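The records we work with from here on pair a chain with its fold. Here is one such record, which you should read through line by line:
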Amino acid sequence: MLNLMFTQLAFFALLALPFIAANKQTVGIEGKLTCNGKPYSGAKIKLYDHDTLTMDDKLGETQTDNTGYFKLIGTGSEVSRLNVKFNVYHRCGKTLPVCYYKYSWAVPQSYVSSGTYPQKMFNAQTIELSLLEKHRDCLN
């Protein structure tokens, strides 16, 4: 009986370990989107922690303003270092407003900070959407 209780306790301790040992980490990104040289408003920007074996964890989401500018800070908890990417969903160059075009970028690990506020922002600069490959996404 005592052996069974110890086994159960050890099992639940192992299950809880990732939640206990996970570190809060933060990343910040900013940039500007243009479409054919003009500011692109209303694009969706989503920040993710890319996981290999499980679904990606969404860290944050925003939209570009009327000047095409976006700024996004996201926080997540992981035992290891966050593996951050951001996705842009847009309709630049689409004739029918069905689905979006999607493009993804990796954020360098050096922009991931411990804690709840980024120590430095990743500046994506100005991204011209009309020059990107067109990957269709209808489920964002």
Notes: Confidence is low (pLDDT under 50) at residues 16-20.
